[in-house]
């Protein structure tokens, strides 16, 4: 464990992390009308106090129409003062902070956005019960606007004390929708084989790096796999990882799953269906979830380091720094990942369960987390904010 707590450089500038641990971006549900609350600030300060080197604020939409739903935060003049306050408070306790930048694409329940953007016109299985039935296939003008939205948001964060940004290319959101053959049916230079499907996401990452400068850390979250046939595959991931290495992104965070089809591919363990039904945004959604949820939401058994075998294939493919994510729950698991050559480790549920998880591991107080993977924290995201129901 000693090597896990040594300083590490992040990116190509002088940003240094005090250890290998990153708080994984996980939706917090702690914004009101798109503005961060004190609870969001406290949440990330607690992570920094618990020896997380880089805590990641989740789902920072790059524009109003990039939001999945109305309360979701987006990076604008109204949210930036609170976001700067969050960064300043994290710095005071010795941590660093990143923002995950995303665009929902057609994964929208935002009733202000009746024709959400996507690579192709597809049925919106995520938001149709909210009356948003189909996406709009993006034009070249749409793509240029979205790319500039990502770059501008990143620069605004850099100018407001953030230490890094994370570009979301995973989990079925817009840039992932371009990467996945399941959702990208385009016939132009942005559709077809992985070379074309990756073109727009890579253009966005390059634009962000160009805007913020090569010394500012730009991480990318990328699926190892969508988790279903005819989706983004491990071979696709190898190609995109090599291209990201060529354009000098700072690190790749390896993840997996597609929100509308395999939501628990990443959050393995129990499915809190009862709470998910209660959280439905309409009566129709609640009824549909109650009737069909047990059949359409696949359960994945939790095992420690469940993405490691896939992630090792990417480690063999590129030299770029890699962030391992998926099933870290113990000192043994951490050591195994580091011994396989991964540069950083991202942790989600173990830190939600106990922000002092890393301190207790380091000091020998525990050997593993007591998080039981009930996933009820997922339900709490859509209530009053993410929390562990076992400890709070």
Give keywords.
single chain; 392 residues; alpha/beta; 8-stranded parallel beta barrel; two-stranded antiparallel sheet; 14 helices; 14% strand; globular
Helix and strand layout, with pairings?
Layout lengths: L7 E2 L6 E2 L3 E3 L7 E2 L2 E2 L1 H12 L4 E8 L18 H13 L3 E7 L14 E2 L17 E2 L2 H19 L5 E6 L4 H6 L14 H4 L1 H14 L5 E6 L10 H13 L4 E5 L17 H6 L4 H14 L11 H10 L4 E4 L5 H9 L4 E4 L1 H5 L3 H6 L13 H6 L11
Parallel strand pairs: 3-6, 3-14, 6-7, 7-10, 8-9, 10-11, 11-12, 12-13, 13-14
Antiparallel strand pairs: 1-2, 4-5
Quick structural summary:
Helices cover 35% and strands 14% of the residues.
User: How are strands sequenced across the largest beta sheet?
Assistant: 3-6-7-10-11-12-13-14
Low-confidence segments, given as residue ranges, are none
Order of helices and strands: EEEEEHEHEEEHEHHHEHEHHHEHEHHH
Q: How many DSSP E strands?
A: 14
Helicity range = 25-40%
> Using only CA atoms, what is the Rg?
19 Å
Largest sheet: 8 strands, parallel, barrel
> What is the beta-strand fraction?
5-15%
Round the mean pLDDT to the nearest integer and report it.
Answer: 92
Categorize the overall geometry: globular
Please tally the helical runs, counting DSSP H or I stretches of 4 or more residues. Answer: 14
End-to-end CA span = 28 Å
Structural class: alpha/beta
Description:
The chain has about 400 residues and is an alpha/beta fold. About 35% of the residues lie in helices and about 15% in strands. It contains 14 helices and 14 strands. It has helices at about 40-50, 80-90, 140-160, 175-180, 195, 200-210, 235-245, 275-280, 285-295, 310-315, 330-340, 350-355, 355-360, 375-380, and strands at about 10, 15, 20-25, 30, 35, 55-60, 95-100, 115-120, 135, 165-170, 220-225, 250-255, 320-325, 345. The strands form four sheets. An eight-stranded parallel β-barrel has the order 3-6-7-10-11-12-13-14, surrounded by seven helices. It has a two-stranded antiparallel ribbon with strand order 1-2. A hairpin with a 2-residue loop joins strand 4 (about 30) and strand 5 (about 35). Helix 1 (about 40-50) packs parallel to helix 2. The longest helix is centred in the middle third of the chain and has 19 residues, at about 140-160. It is globular, with a radius of gyration of 19 Å. It starts with 7 loop residues before the first strand and ends in an 11-residue tail after the last helix.
């Amino acid at each position: 464990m000693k090597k896990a707590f040594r300083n590490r450089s992040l990116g190509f500038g002088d940003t240094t992390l005090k250890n290998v641990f990153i708080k994984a971006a996980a939706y917090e549900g702690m914004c009101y009308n798109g503005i961060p609350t004190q609870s969001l600030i406290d949440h990330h300060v607690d992570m920094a106090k618990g020896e997380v080197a880089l805590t990641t604020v989740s789902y920072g939409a790059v524009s109003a129409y990039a939001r999945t739903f109305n309360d979701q935060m987006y990076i604008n003049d109204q949210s930036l003062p609170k976001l700067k306050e969050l960064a300043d408070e994290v710095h005071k306790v010795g941590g660093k902070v990143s923002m995950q930048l995303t665009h929902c694409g057609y994964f929208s329940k935002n009733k202000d956005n009746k024709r959400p953007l996507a690579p192709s016109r597809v049925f919106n299985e995520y938001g149709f019960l909210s009356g948003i039935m189909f996406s709009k296939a993006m034009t070249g003008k749409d793509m240029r606007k979205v790319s500039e939205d990502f770059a501008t948001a990143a620069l605004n964060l850099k100018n407001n004390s953030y230490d890094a940004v994370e570009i979301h290319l995973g989990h079925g959101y817009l840039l992932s929708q371009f990467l996945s053959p399941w959702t990208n049916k385009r016939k132009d230079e942005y559709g077809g084989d992985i070379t074309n499907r990756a073109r727009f996401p890579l253009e966005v990452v390059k634009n962000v790096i160009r805007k913020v400068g090569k010394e500012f850390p730009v991480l990318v979250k990328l699926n190892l796999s969508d988790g279903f046939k005819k989706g983004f595959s491990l071979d696709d991931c190898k190609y995109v990882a090599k291209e990201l290495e060529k354009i000098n992104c700072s690190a790749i965070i390896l993840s997996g799953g597609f929100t509308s089809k395999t939501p628990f591919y990443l959050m393995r363990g129990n499915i809190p269906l009862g709470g998910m039904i209660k959280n439905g945004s309409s009566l129709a959604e609640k009824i549909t979830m109650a009737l069909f949820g047990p059949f359409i939401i696949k359960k994945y058994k939790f095992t420690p380091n469940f993405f490691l075998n896939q992630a090792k294939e990417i480690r063999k493919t590129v030299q770029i720094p890699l962030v391992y994510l998926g099933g870290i729950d113990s000192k043994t698991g951490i050591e195994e990942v580091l011994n396989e050559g991964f540069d950083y480790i991202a942790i989600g549920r173990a830190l939600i369960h106990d922000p002092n998880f890393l301190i207790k591991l380091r000091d020998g107080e525990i050997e593993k987390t007591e998080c039981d993977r009930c996933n009820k924290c997922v339900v709490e995201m859509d209530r009053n904010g993410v929390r562990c129901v076992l400890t709070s």
